[in-house]
């Protein structure tokens, strides 16, 4: 059974940083894609970043490019989303999701994800 558990959310002041963690089990990060999504109140859910293995492809939406970084720590089966220079508009519930397996030729974020975490709140406010 695939499981994903987010942690690291909370309240941060504008300009601050948070690192979200997505602890995974039941599959190998070596051939799966992980996407980070967010959903703000009254808005649709959007995928802010993804990383695909084994190709290593990663992608970000324009609004977080250069601000957020997705990475993995294989030994801990964990994928991170480092969020810097946070703004009030980054306030949302953040989710990680997994899909796979993939091969070396897969260099796009998955069109859909079947495995989701429970979500975690990130609030950017002074």
Describe the 3D structure.
By secondary structure, the chain is mainly β. Helices cover 0% and strands 48% of the residues. It contains no helices and eleven strands. The protein has strands at 3-7, 10-12, 18-25, 33-39, 46-52, 57-60, 68-73, 78-83, 92-99, 115-116, 120-124. The strands form two sheets. Strands 2, 4, 5, 6, 9, 10 and 11 form a seven-stranded mixed beta sheet that branches. It has a four-stranded antiparallel beta sheet with strand order 1-3-8-7, with no helix packed on it. The radius of gyration is 14 Å and the shape is globular. The protein starts with a strand and ends with a strand.
Walk me through the topology.
Blueprint: E1 3-7, E2 10-12, E3 18-25, E4 33-39, E5 46-52, E6 57-60, E7 68-73, E8 78-83, E9 92-99, E10 115-116, E11 120-124
Parallel strand pairs: 2-11
Antiparallel strand pairs: 1-3, 3-8, 4-5, 4-9, 5-6, 7-8, 9-10, 9-11
Give me the count of strands.
Answer: 11
Name the poorly predicted regions.
Answer: none
List the helices and strands in order.
Answer: EEEEEEEEEEE
Proportion of strand residues: over 45%
Shape: globular
Classify the secondary structure makeup into a structural class: mainly beta
Distance between the amino and carboxyl termini: 40 Å
Tally the helices: what do you get?
0
Helix content: under 10%
Which sheet architecture does the biggest sheet show? 7 strands, mixed
Summed up:
Helix content is 0%, strand content 48%.
Search tags:
126 residues, 48% strand, mainly beta, 7-stranded mixed β-sheet
């Amino acid at each position: 059974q695939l499981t994903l558990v987010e942690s690291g959310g909370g309240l941060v002041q504008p300009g601050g940083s948070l690192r979200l963690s997505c602890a995974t089990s039941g599959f190998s990060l070596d051939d799966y894609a992980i996407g980070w999504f967010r959903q703000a109140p009254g808005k649709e859910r959007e995928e802010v970043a993804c990383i695909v293995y084994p190709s290593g492809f990663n992608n970000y939406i324009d609004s977080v490019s250069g601000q957020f970084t997705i990475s993995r720590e294989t030994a801990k089966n964990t994928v991170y989303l480092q969020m810097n220079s946070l703004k009030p508009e980054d306030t949302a519930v953040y989710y990680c999701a997994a899909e796979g397996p993939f091969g070396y030729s897969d260099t796009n974020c998955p069109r859909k994800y079947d495995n989701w975490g429970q979500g975690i709140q990130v609030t950017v406010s002074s």
